[in-house]
Amino acid sequence: MKKTTLILILLVFTSANADEETRQYVKFPPKLQLKQLSNMRDHMVALNEILEYMAFDDLDEAANVAEKRLGLSARHAHNTNDLAKYMPEGMKQAGYSMHSAASNFAQVAKKGDAESAYEALMAVTQSCVACHAGYRTR
Predict the structure, then answer these.
(1) Angular region, 119: left φ>0, alpha ψ -120 to 50, beta rest
(2) E strand or H helix at 25, and its extent?
(3) What is the pLDDT of residues 104-124, one digit of tens each?
(4) Please, which residues have CB within 8 angstroms of residue 18's CB and are 6 or more apart in sequence?
(5) DSSP-derived secondary structure for 79-98
(6) What's the rounded Cα separation, in Å, for the pair 89 and 7?
(7) Which CATH number does 23-136 carry?
(8) Where are the domains of the chain?
(9) Structural contact between residues 78 and 39, judged by C-beta atoms closer than 8 angstroms
(10) pLDDT tens column, 15-52
(11) How many angstroms from the chain centroid is the CA of residue 18?
């Protein structure tokens, strides 16, 4: 089964059971919860910027945003070591998958093929969806 199909099934299941919370609760101390939420919001802004650059065929800038804000190097910029000790292993793996996929997207986008770049970007958003479908902080 393709990863995309699995995520769609998961989304349908979670939508069908919207009145029943099935995601694992991850408790962060209050200041770290705010930091985690701030990081997630920054990820959404970065994804939006990437899509804007791609819409105007500026794959180089999309790649730059991806690597600097979402890629493996961004993990150090966000200084997530204090957050990681509260995360279940699956949540850590989903985060690493997203950062790794963003770095891969940056490499693919720099080659200039928009179709390949969009395909690579799907792996980024699939990691986001998988994590948010499985975990919650409130």
Answers:
(1) alpha
(2) strand 24-25
(3) 999 999 999 999 999 999 999
(4) none
(5) T-HHHHTTS-HHHHHHHHHH
(6) 19
(7) 1.20.120
(8) 23-136
(9) yes
(10) 555 678 899 999 999 999 999 999 999 999 999 999 99
(11) 22
